[in-house]
Amino acid sequence: MKFGKEFAAQMVPEWEGAYMDYNLLKTRLKEILRFRQRTRPPTATAATRGGLKRKLTLYRAFSGLTQRNHTSYNPMSKPNDDEDDNQRGEEDEGSQSYQTTFLMASDEGGEYELVYFRRLDDEFNKVNRFYKCKVEEVLKEADSLTKQMDALIAFRIKVENPTGWSHDDRKAQMTRLASDVAASAAALSATTPSEARASSKYFQPINLMAIEEGSMSHEQSSSSDGSSSHDEDDAEKEEEKTKNQSNNTNGNVVRLSLLEVLDHVKMNNTSETPRSTIKGFLKVPRHTELKFTRENLRKVEERLKRAFVEFYQKLRLLKSYSFLNTLAFSKIMKKYDKITSRSASAAYMRMVDNSYLGSSDDVTRLMERVEATFIKHFSNANRSKGMSILRPKAKRERHRTTFTMGFFSGCAAAQELTKQCLSVCSFFGFIVLHIVMYAANIYFWRRYRVNYSFIFGFKPGTELGYRQVLLVAFGIAVLALCSVLSNLDMEMDPVTKDYQAFTEVIPLGLLILLLVMLFLPFNILYRSSRFFLLTCIFHCIAAPLYKVTLPDFFLGDQLTSQVQAIRSLEFYVCYYGWGDFRRRENTCSSSGLFNTFNFIVAVIPFVARLLQCLRRLFEEKDPMQGLNGLKYFVTIVAVTMRTAYVLDKGFTWLVLAWVFSAIAAIGSTYWDLVFDWGLLQRHSKNWWLRDKLLVPSKRVYYLAMALNVLLRFAWLQTVLGYNLVPLHKQTTVAIVASLEIIRRGIWNFFRLENEHLNNVGKYRAFKSVPLPFNYDEDGDKDE
């Protein structure tokens, strides 16, 4: 694989604009190469074609590169008065800006090289400034985590020893602590790579400190301030004399200083529950007094563990960002040397190495401190366990998954659909089609580098690939078709023919089986994904009582396209709940109560989305959420008008149903294209699209817009209930419902593409993790 493709593949998707534009610089080099090929003398060309390999001497020797503001980070270095004047620096709002002076611009073709170096300097300054800005952000976050760790240690002391230590207990605790620290250090040293041990002694301590639980001796606390020199022997002897006298009081002093942290700390209630929502509505303060219980200690440790894992991922991405960009500058300069037969890469890379991008080791030191702190405090000094949490392994694609998926798809395709299958399997068919569309979404999201796992908030290493999703879809399809075959076989078998009631229960048994598999608590069948889905479904049901996140309203939008599946569930309740399966009669359609509920259940997904919009309007004070809620309210009114028309066949209800349905369809289509997809921008460089497109072909967007408008008629059918004459009513309903699911699948891709581009525009590659403790000064700042 060429470096350009590898470079693009390893980028952080949300930081794509902050990386060096490798392809643009290659284009500048190609311009230089084409100019040199055009101006190459015929003799040199003939000699080259003849196979004579010798170094060209047609170009002057390269006189060198100088960098403005080429400042070393060594404080002992002094500027050389003999340096060229072009080496003077320019300060740009407190940040360094580098500029290369090309001394051969007057040569033939020098203007091409001058343009190349100007663009190269722009790219380097962009990368250097972005990296420095992000490092400053993580250093501030490290200070915040340090304060959280101070509070955690004090909280542990208070929970484990609420009444304090006696003198004998304190001495035993100090002895145990010293032995534990020694054993922990030995174990950590044994499991730490030699390179890390060798390099760690050159790093000075940073703010993020690993704090010991319990009492500390005076020597331990003072040793962190620095090593003593040989000229301080007298002071050490004096300290040795007073050590025994102060030993009895040091434990209490240090313990008191640790516990004093708790006087300035309150518990930050970050859990989103109906109770917290009601308190927020009543404007009850979210910060509560500390309650020193083991349950609260466990919650605090879990929150801090998540915060440390997320913080460590930031550091890893920053380190990768620095390494990839440094490597890219090295590669592009080597290409320049090869094309121009110069030796400029060494001088330029010295400047890169001396810049903040190449010389700063803050990220490396922070990673070492985070690893040491996490291993010590959250994994019981077990390095392998701690590192497995900090660096989760990527999920490997298994051949058996692909084989099983293909086998199930073949079995499902081999089954012949019958009229009985259409009535029994319609619910499962809608679910399978939706899962297949979601698998297609995952495939194209990965192909066009849409970071869907970050957008949805999946735990790293647990997100499913499109093969796993297709395996689930075809597995459900095989189970549904097998239930139909079992039903038909029992109908034709003389032995089981008399057990008609039992044969009718097979579809219900399949539904119960799928529900059991969905709620199964064991770590099988993608448990994390199942629980994630159940959590989102519960949040949709209790929409106004939980904070609305993107997975929640995204699932709510999916449910609005599964109206017919929800009606199928209603049919299951009626058919099996009212006992029609015993008589093998369908009396549900003749029941007025069933027909009324047939439209009420269709409103439920839209009501959930309306409540989610109202919740976001209340929290975010965003008027766009009010408009979005108005869109769903109009849809609810349209469904209600249709319900009234079914109950009372009047021309007035029919007109109202058509009018509100048309308004809802037009408003929803406009919202899809403009707000959800970000298209129809008048001043975009891509005509009526948007400036940034992930799919190279613009025709895809125009086709998707046209399909979205056309397939909205399928959505109208779910409200108005019009039928196509040549087809059976159930067939028409199934086809139209399937078209709406396909429309939703197309909508999913462009909706997440737009969300991803919003993250890219804001360089938002991380999610904020709420911290468990709130300091008084933090509260004052917030106010």
Automatic annotation (TrEMBL):
InterPro entries linked to this entry: EXS_C, PHO1_SPX, SPX_dom
Keyword field: Cell membrane, Membrane, Phosphate transport, Transmembrane, Transmembrane helix, Transport
Subcellular location: Cell membrane
UniProt topology in membrane: Multi-pass membrane protein
Pfam (any one): SPX
Biased composition (Acidic residues): 81-94
Domain EXS: start-end pairs: 589-783
Assigned protein family: Belongs to the SYG1 (TC 2.A.94) family.
Name of this protein: Uncharacterized protein
